[in-house]
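Entry type: protein chain
Record version: 2
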Amino acid sequence: MLFTRTRGRKERHRGMEQVPQSPPRWGDDPLSKFMSEADHNARVTALRWPDVYEVQQRAAALLERIGEILELDPDDANLLVPRTLVIRSRSAILGAMRSAMSGQAVEAQPVLRQAIENAWYALHVARDPAPPTRAQIWWDRDVSEEAIRACRAEFTVANVRQTHEALDADTVAAMKKLYDDTITHGGHPNERGVASSLRIDRSRPGVVRLGVGILHPGTAIAMGTLKAAVDVTVGVAKTVGLIYSFRFRFMEVDDQINRLAQHSAAVFPKYAEAARNGALT
């Protein structure tokens, strides 16, 4: 079973009935203030950009639909690893959306990169010419130093990407662009990851103050990251479709993917234009 959230008002934990209560308000310590502001920013972002949030909702619904399809997959041991990796990819995309909405768009970049890598790993294992060889290498990674080296050699980004490229060159090209963009915008420690939220204050004579935003919502990079999360959703969904091609067609998931891509193309360009003109609000 794929666990995504707590359902219902009551749940059982270790044999004891638990009745969840409303959590107390955040305190005044630095961490609590950060958590409170992050929650607030995410809600404000959804209200400020409702059409963008609607696209994200559509992306999340697509990911949930894929999760349901994988959950009902027949008991095929050779697809166990791909199934779990796809769910991790879904989780990473949702995490990136939440981070970007809260104002941590730079920190969302390595999470989006992880979403792409999980999908590529899943396809690489699913397309193993001699199963379960690749799955076993992946599962046994930490058994020994030799196993670690074997896993690293098998699951390089180049290897898993080439598996995808042999099946769908157009999608892999789009995903490679997204992958490279995550690195450019902060997935690795670099200039853009810092400069995107850097503020220089020269208001006092002879004093220069530098500020780096931690929770910095409503920015061009936040908008770009939300678009990237939707684009990654489309790419991941198409990648998973190579594993479950018949089921995706039968369940009309391919149509859902196309509708998401069309919706995204209708919403994001106006925000990109506003960002270029310095009028993003």
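Comment: The mean pLDDT is 90.
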